[in-house]
Design goal:
The structure holds 2 protein chains of 2 kinds.
Chain A: E1 12-15, H1 21-31, E2 35-40, H2 61-66, E3 71-74, H3 80-91, E4 95-98, H4 104-107, H5 112-118, E5 123-128, H6 143-150, H7 152-155, H8 172-193, E6 198-202, H9 203-210, H10 212-220, E7 238-243, E8 248-253, H11 257-266, H12 270-274, H13 281-286, H14 288-299, H15 304-314, E9 318-320, H16 324-328, H17 331-335, E10 340-344, E11 348-352, E12 358-359, H18 377-384, H19 389-398
Parallel strand pairs in A: 1-2, 1-4, 2-3, 4-5, 5-6
Antiparallel strand pairs in A: 7-8, 8-9, 10-11
Helix pairs in contact in A: 1-8, 3-5, 6-9, 8-9
Chain B: E1 16-20, H1 26-33, E2 38-43, H2 67-72, E3 77-80, H3 86-97, E4 101-104, H4 110-113, H5 118-124, E5 129-134, H6 149-155, H7 176-199, E6 204-208, H8 209-213, H9 219-226, E7 243-248, E8 251-256, H10 264-271, H11 286-291, H12 293-304, H13 309-318, E9 323-325, H14 329-334, H15 336-340, E10 344-349, E11 353-358, E12 362-364, H16 382-389, H17 394-402
Parallel strand pairs in B: 1-2, 1-4, 2-3, 4-5, 5-6
Antiparallel strand pairs in B: 7-8, 8-9, 10-11
The chains are: A alpha/beta, B alpha/beta.
């Protein structure tokens, strides 16, 4: 745990966050060498630790996934002495991250303003569904609630669908990844000015930014944006096609004449390329549905991986619509080292999604499994805060630690 | 809300970025520009592929009329340059000397073949950070496979679980594979620049969009740890019940009732008027509810169908029940919440007229974040950059233009 590595070595993060929205941000920082100290307590631990009524708090799959490389301390924020410990940690921290309901930390006396008294140039990010202001500030919700409110859910559908469907995904990684950009920008600003700042990330607004063109479209006035599904005006064929096997699909996108000729050659339809209605873009546009059926006749006789492989080798944009199994078995992700085995004292050696970036000079690393509850109390209280044995015992007896 | 003292220069003031991100990584340049960096978009003289992306204003195509291009390139400067010519390559090498970072999204190996690869550029300027963004990364067996946004999204795991079970999987709206990759590209570029403070050295960052997508929804760990494949199930979330869309009088609401919130089932029942059909104690058990979700939905729908979405949302929220209206983009723009937060900003685009933009995903208390000016016209800043900064004469610029290089 002590080895220095990564672009963010030397940065310390005080992590109050739980579930995914905040932990995803601090996970990315921890991969790149920031020292992330997760603050939990025996009474109030990350909700991901406890799954489906299980009493064991140290063997949760999603907790193990989103908290690798982090340190963990147990501090009771309801105790004055516990809050003092947090402020002493703030003194030696660069960044704080939290995703409690809007005013939880303020009521505890641990707002940005309070923490700045300990560390005047602190950078702090708060992420909530609706943000820290506005009439709906205190709305309760989860990732899918934010997506629904933003307009994303209404647009996530096949173009011809009669009802609204959306997706079952909660999108938290995608929405809060934005926070990482803001924290890094604030660190650069701190170097230039010596000043920290407070960052607010409303998940509804992050979702809206991912469908930004829809608002430009809405305000440009010609017609309101609608669901487009897998069909695009500027490419045909452009869809997913059923393949051999149970619920197996391949996505195929043809954007140019070159790609169309390559598609026809690779899929044993050379005749389509040079004569007949499919040989021109206009012909294909006018017979989109008919062409999709003809293509599906070819794909449905082959496994999705074979279809994608044939087309990729021919230079045609195509991919298996990947399930969890497809991702785990993806030879490409394995070759790149993205899928990684991590040993965990309670869960054994398991495969996880890894780090989505390679750095030539300061490579990110995986140095430890997700922490057991309070695993780093000794390191943090003795080595970082220099507390004596007696002080630690007294704090444990009073319930401030634990 | 940023206070009046906000520094309008932005947190990244002083940073210079060359944006060769095409349409794929256009959002990366936008994020950096709207945090204060000077971002120069380098396009071929025929225009970036994003300029041909529909929809167009009034459905009339034109290089200055693409609405997605207007969104993804606001706050950037724009120059044209043909990188396949020797002059073009030489000018890019000159531009690199004063840049802090270069973000590129060509197919892997394309720039290296033009003698403009990351290694070559960093010989010219050792402090340069080169961030390469691609669907599958710079190496590995599939690195050269072509992909557009839908194909990349399909490779990431979320598309497989999106849509109704009886219909094909459906891609996310917008260009979210590109956007998620771009967010990571912006963050990792800033990380590499952060590391440069100590070493003085830049580096090459390789961002694979598929990998940025593949962390979402535990699809990998569910299979790797539990041998379980998540399948698409409409809007129904895997664990929560209710945890899906429900039709109401004027649209839909989204309900998400999990027992991780204490007392939520009792509050939910009280709001529905304690329907007789759901009084049996077994309904209080979230696992029972999830197993009987269709029956549960029938009873909940009887209630939601009697009300409007905004009233349902506000009444549920007054009881601390996670319920939101399923808004259209227009609904969000008109919502009292976003109006109060001034989330949408208006900009006057020379061709598109007044258009509205979301401000930014985040607000910083000390520095501005959000759109600064409309997307550049094709070659709009050629004179400023080539003559004003690189010191070319007007007559040289005219010659380069006539030769089709800028």
């Amino acid at each position: 745990m002590t080895a220095s590595f990564g672009a963010l070595q030397g940065i310390r993060v005080l992590d109050f966050s739980h579930m995914i929205a905040g932990p995803y941000i601090t996970l990315m920082m921890a991969y790149h060498g920031a020292e992330v100290i997760k603050i939990e307590s025996g009474q109030r631990y990350d909700g991901f630790r406890r799954r489906r009524g299980d009493e064991e708090l140290n063997a949760s799959r999603p907790f193990a996934d989103f908290n690798r490389n982090k340190r963990d301390v147990t501090i009771n924020l309801k105790k004055e002495a516990g809050r003092d410990l947090v402020k002493r940690l703030a003194v030696i921290s660069d960044v704080a991250v939290e995703n409690f309901s809007a005013d939880v930390l303020t009521k505890l006396g641990l707002s940005y303003r309070d923490l700045c008294q300990a560390r005047p140039d602190l950078i702090m990010l708060s992420t909530q569904g609706m943000g820290q202001s506005g009439p709906y500030r205190d709305f309760v919700g989860w990732g899918p609630s934010a997506m629904a409110f933003s307009g994303m859910t209404a647009l996530w559908n096949h173009a011809d669908a009669e009802d609204v469907v959306g997706s079952q995904t909660a999108h938290p990684d995608y929405l809060t990844a934005h926070g990482l950009v803001a924290i890094l920008a604030a660190l650069h600003h701190r170097v230039a000015t010596g000043r920290g700042q407070y960052i607010e990330l409303a998940q509804v607004e992050a979702a809206a930014c991912l469908i930004g063109p829809a608002f430009v479209e809405q305000s440009a006035g010609s017609r309101p944006p609608t669901a487009q599904g897998n069909v695009r005006q500027d490419a045909v064929p452009h869809n997913v096609y059923r393949c051999q096997g149970d619920d197996a699909w391949c996505a195929i996108a043809v954007h140019s004449d070159t790609q169309w000729v390559a598609f026809c050659t690779a899929s044993d339809h050379v005749d389509w390329a040079h004569s007949g209605p499919y040989s021109t873009l206009l012909g294909r546009l006018r017979r989109r549905a008919e062409l999709d059926l003809a293509i599906e006749d070819w794909t449905s006789r082959r496994p999705a991986g074979e279809v994608a492989g044939i087309l990729q080798r021919a230079g045609v944009p195509a991919s298996v619509v990947a399930s969890g199994r497809d991702l785990v078995e993806d030879a490409h992700l394995r070759a790149r080292g993205f899928l990684m085995e991590v040993d965990h004292p309670r869960m054994g050696s398991k495969l996880y999604a890894g780090i989505p970036a390679r750095f030539s000079n300061t490579p990110p690393r995986l140095r430890r499994h997700a922490p057991l509850l309070g695993q780093d109390n000794d390191y943090v209280f003795r080595e970082l805060l220099h507390l004596s044995e007696a002080e630690i015992r007294a704090l444990e007896d009073s319930g401030a630690i634990g | 809300m940023p206070p009046a003292t906000v520094d309008n220069a932005g947190a990244l003031a002083g940073l210079r970025v060359l944006d060769l991100g095409l349409d794929r990584a256009a959002y990366c340049g936008k994020l950096l520009a709207e945090l204060g960096a000077v971002v120069v978009k380098v396009e071929p003289p025929s225009g970036d592929s994003g300029r041909r992306q529909p929809p167009f204003k009034d459905d009339l195509p034109g290089l200055e009329r693409s609405l997605p291009f207007a969104y993804y390139n606001s706050s950037k400067l724009g120059i044209t340059l043909d990188l396949t010519t020797r002059d073009g390559q030489e000018l890019l090498r000159l531009l690199v000397q004063s840049a802090d970072a270069l973000v590129e999204a060509f197919d892997p190996g394309y720039l290296a073949a033009l003698n403009l690869g990351a290694d070559r550029l960093r010989e010219i300027h050792p402090g340069l950070v080169v961030t390469s963004v691609s669907p599958f990364g710079q190496d590995g067996p599939r690195s050269h496979a072509p992909a557009d946004d839908m194909v990349t999204f399909a490779s990431g795991g979320v598309m497989y679980i999106s849509g109704k079970p009886e219909r094909p999987p459906v891609v996310a709206p917008g260009q979210q594979a590109y956007d998620i990759g771009s967010i990571h590209a912006a963050a990792t570029t800033l990380m590499a620049l952060w590391a440069r403070r100590c070493s003085g050295m830049g580096q090459h960052v390789d961002v694979a969009m598929q990998e940025c997508l593949a962390t979402e929804e535990h699809t990998i760990s569910r299979f790797a740890h539990e041998n379980y494949v998540i399948h698409r199930d409409g809007s129904q979330h895997e664990s929560a019940a209710p945890g899906s869309l429900f039709p109401c009088r004027d649209g839909y609401v989204h309900l998400f009732v999990t027992n991780s919130t204490p007392g939520i089932w009792e509050r939910f029942m009280a709001w529905l008027g304690d329907p007789a059909a759901l009084q049996d104690g077994c309904w209080a058990d979230p696992l029972y509810r999830r197993a009987h979700v269709a029956e549960l939905a029938r009873h909940v729908t009887e209630f939601t169908m009697r009300h409007d979405k905004r009233a349902l949302m506000e009444e549920a929220q007054a009881r601390h029940i996670p319920c939101t209206a399923v808004n259209t983009p227009a609904d969000l723009m008109e919502s009292p919440h976003e109006v109060a937060r001034q989330f949408f900003v208006s900009m006057d685009h020379p061709t598109l007229g007044p258009i509205q933009f979301p401000r930014a995903a985040y607000r910083l208390s000390e520095t501005a974040a959000g759109p600064r000016w409309p997307a550049p016209g094709l070659g709009e800043h050629n004179v400023d950059i080539y003559c004003g900064e690189l010191g070319l004469s007007r007559s040289e610029l005219v010659s380069l233009y006539a030769a089709g290089i800028v």
